[in-house]
Amino acid sequence: MTPGGTARVLRADQQPDWPDPDHLHRVAATLRSRRALVAQEEVDALRRRLAEAAAGRALLLQGGPCAEIFGAPARHETEQTMAMLGRMASTLSEGAELPVVAVGRVAGQYAKPRSRTTEQRHGTVLPAYRGDAVNGTGFSARERAADPDRLLRAYDESAAALRRLRSMAQWCYSSHEALLLDYENSLVRTDPDTRRTYASSGHMLWIGERTRHPDCAHVELAARVNNPFGVKVGPSATPDDLLDLITRINPERTPGKLTLITRLGADRIEDVLPALVDKVRLAEVPVLWVCDPMHGNTNVTETGTKTRSVADIVAEIRAFVGIHRQLGTHPGGLHLEMTAHAVTECLGGTEPVRAEDLGKNYTSACDPRLNAGQAADVASLAAEAWAH
Ligand code: PEP
Ligand code: MN
């Protein structure tokens, strides 16, 4: 609070243009009256497991679609994807000889930051798709208008997805990008007995590459709650940026609180990662280092399709493990975009998807995901990398 008692206005990047402030305020009030989606005990349990990983005694395997979409068929796909994540965790665990904590990018991954605010097709310009919590994928003015009621639907969809996850034999924790401040802030809860504050929209949340400005409302949210939080780290991040973020998000140096998810690209990681790791290592703060080998390896084909190759993904993972081993830090896990469906979005794999196959079954609402075979390939090659 400023001396005048008004809340300081923090920078808030990547927020939708909500059309009607009163409508948004009504939705926020409804969300504030809703029950927590996740229990504080579950959040604390995950933070403790991530503390084990940060200490070198476990790994994190985080995975799921780039963007979840609303509806029962998508929830069914989520269940299959999470069963697959469980199998990949076993593969990785055997290779690395460490326990693996499985966390889905699911049950709340409904909001997307965008590099461009508009999309152009055949001469028509419309607002970009920002995730089902904001607008629709369909290319019409009606679909692309931001609708605050979608935040309520995101809550309901998350609740339904969490019920399904909890009924699975081996259930995973949930996670998503904490992007929409009106949604996330309305779901922050403080326990009246312990006075501890939690984001109740998911177990683990993360701040994306486009919203990690130190003075922004996303960083303030991460600092205010007891949930484990990730921060995506792209090649433009400097060692000092990371120290600044660490100090703001985890001033008490709580183990398991902060995960740095590097997404540097196979061609940049050797240049960029060592200096980042070195600086954080010397500061002696407990962080968990995780490799996202997806977002630094995105290419656009000549015909305008976004894709990634399994070869680049595996190369970044190998470099990540090698660099941490060399510096004496713990390569703490993986963050993947994947689905159990037989999509043709990423290139390569043992049953290879070729450039000419990309059009056959490309169903992602946003970024290209590994299909089931490619995800299994990545899991076993990662297990080998950790085994060496
Ligand atoms: C994502 O995880 O889908 C994403 C947008 O990542 P980043 O913030 O690293 O670009
Ligand atoms: Mn993505």
TrEMBL record:
This is Phospho-2-dehydro-3-deoxyheptonate aldolase. Pathway: Metabolic intermediate biosynthesis; chorismate biosynthesis; chorismate from D-erythrose 4-phosphate and phosphoenolpyruvate: step 1/7. The keyword Zinc-finger does not apply. It catalyses: D-erythrose 4-phosphate + phosphoenolpyruvate + H2O = 7-phospho-2-dehydro-3-deoxy-D-arabino-heptonate + phosphate. Gene3D superfamilies: Aldolase class I (3.20.20.70). Coiled coil: none annotated. Keywords: Amino-acid biosynthesis, Aromatic amino acid biosynthesis, Transferase. It comes from Saccharopolyspora taberi. It comes from the Bacteria. PANTHER family: PHOSPHO-2-DEHYDRO-3-DEOXYHEPTONATE ALDOLASE, PHOSPHO-2-DEHYDRO-3-DEOXYHEPTONATE ALDOLASE 1, 2. Its EC number is 2.5.1.54. Belongs to the class-II DAHP synthase family.
